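User: Predict the complex.
Assistant: Input components as received:
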Amino acid sequence: MDKLKLLARRLLQALPSLAAIVIITFLLTRLLPGDPAAYFAGDAADAESIAQVRAELGLDRPLVVQFFVYLGDLLRGDLGTSLNTGRPVLAEIANRLPASLELTGVALLLALGVAVPLGVLAALYQDRWVDHLCRVVVTAGVSLPTFFTGLLLIYIFYYILGWAPSPLGRLDFLYIPPATVTGFYTVDALLAGDLEIAWAAFTQLLLPAITLGLFVLAPIARMTRAAMLAALSSDYIRTARAYGLHRATVLITYAFRNALLPVLTTLGMVFSFMLGANVLVERVFSWPGIGSFAVEALVASDYAAVQGFVLVMAILFVVLNLMIDLVYTLIDPRIRVEG
Amino acid sequence: MTTIAAPSLTQHGLYILRENPVTAVAFGLFALLVFFAVAGPWIAPYDPLLSNAARILEPPSLDHWFGTDQLGRDVLSRVIVATRLDLGIAVTAVLLSCGVGAVLGCLAGFYGGWWDVLIGRLTDAIMAFPLFVLAMGIVAAAGNTVENIVYATAIINLPFYARVARAEANVRRDSGFVEAARVSGNSEFSLIARHLFPNLLPPLVVQLSLNMGWAILNAAGLSFIGLGVRPPTPEWGIMVAEGATYIVSGEWWLALFPGTALMLAVFCFNLLGDGLRDLIDPSRRT
C-alpha cells in the first residue's frame, strides 16, 4: 500500500518536468528568426496576405492566449503539419518512432551486456588487467565522436571485410518489410515466421546499434565499477564473508544487487546521451527514424517538424526517467522500510 | 620562527607531471592543439580553400600527407586550420556557460529563497531535455549560425556550472571568513564578488575542464548534421560529414583525419580534466 502511494507520488513529480518542456518548446517556436507569418505566406505574398496568414495562425493574439491555443492543440495531438512532407507531424513521428526505439533498445542491451560485466570484473580484480582494460575503454569511449565511430565501422565491416550489409536504412531494398505489428522489423518478421527477413533486418541493425552502444558503454562501465567497489568495501559484505557464506552468494546476492541501484540512477543521464547520439547515428546509417526526420526538417527549415521532434524526444526522456524511478522504488528494499 | 618553503609553482607542476605520465601526454597534446589553433593558417602547407581539379581524391602521398578531398583541397591543411574554429566554439561556449552559471549559482546559494527556487527551476527545465536535442531545437529556432551554436552549447552546459557554484556558495555563505568580511563592513556585492567567488573557482575550473571535451563533441555533432558552420569553411564535423559520402567507396582519408583530430582533442581535454580533478579535488576521483 505504501509502495503504491510512493509510486503515485513519483508519477506526480514528473508533472513539473512536463510543464517545463511544454513551456520551453512553446517559447522556442516563438523565437523563430524573422516573421513566421511572412515565412508561411511564401515569397510572393503582399502585406495583406501576410496579415491574413498571421490572423489564421493566431500570431496576432497575445502570447498567453497563443500559449493556451498551443496547449489545446497538444492535448488534441496536433503538432502541426510538416512542410517537407505535407503530412501531420505527429503521424510522421509515430511512423518513424519504432525504428528509433528498436535501434536505441538494442544498443542499450548491447551496452549493458558488455559494460556491466566489465565494470564488475574491474572492481573484483582491481588494478589487474581487466581493470586497466576497463579504464582504457572508459576514457576512449567518452572521447569517440559517435558519427566518426559509425563511419569507421562502416569502412571496416562493409567496405574492407564485406561482412555488413550496405549501411542504408533498416532493410535491404530486395526485401519487403514485414507486416506491422510492433513496428520493430526483427520482431515483426519473427512473428510472421520469416526467418530470412528477420536475419536481414538484424544484420542491418547490428552496426548502428554497436555504434550507439559504444558511446554509452563508458558511463555505464565507470558507474558499475565505482558502485561495485563501494559495495565490496561495505560492512555488510565483510559480515557476509565473516559468516562464511559462499563466495558466489556474497558477490551476487549481496554485492551485485546493491551495486545495481546507483547504476540504475545513472541510466537517466545515459538516456539523455543516447537520445542525442541517436540523431547522429541515424544520420550516418540513413536509418529512417525520428532523428533523420529531424535532420531533414532542420536542413529544410521545417520548424513545426523540428519542434514536434524536440517535444517528443523530451517527453520520451521524461517517461524513461519515470520508469527508472519506478523500477528503483520497486527494487530498493530500504524504501519499504522508510515509506 | 621557521617556515617551510612552499614549492614554487614550476616545482609543483613538474612533480605532478612526473607522478602522472598520462597527464604529461595530455599536456603535450594540449600544447600542440593550442599551437595549431594559434599558428594554423601560417603552418598549413596549402591554402585550405584552394581547390585543384587535377588532383581530386588522391590518397595520402608525400605532397599531400593526408590526401586531397573531392575538390582537390589539401586535407592536412584543412585539418590544421580547422583547429582554431573547433576549439574556439567550444572554449567560448564553455567560458560563457561557466561565467553565467557561476553568477546564477552564487546568487542561488548565497541568497537562497526565491533566487534559489527560480534558478533551480531553470536548471531543472534545461535538464528535462535530452541535451543534444535541446541544442538542435535552439539552433533551429534561433537561426542556423555559428553564434547560435555557441549559445546553444552554452545553454545546455549551464546547469552543471550553476549546480556546482550553488552547492559551494551554499556551504560557504555562513562560514567564518564570510562573517568576518560582513562584520568589517563589506557590502553584499563585495562579499559575493571578492570573498565568496574566488573560493568557487577551483571546483568550477575542474568542471570546466571535464566539460570541455563534451562541448567540443557537441559542437562538432551539430555541424555534422548541417547546423552552424557552412561548407567551404574547414571544420572537423563538416569534414567528417563530407567524407562520409566517400567512405563507402573506399576513400577513407577524407573522414579519418578530421575525425581522428576531433577524437584526439576530446581525449586530451578529458585526460586533462581528470588530471586537474585529481590535483584539486582528489575526493571526486572514481
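Chain A has a mean pLDDT of 81.
Let me know if you want any component modeled separately.
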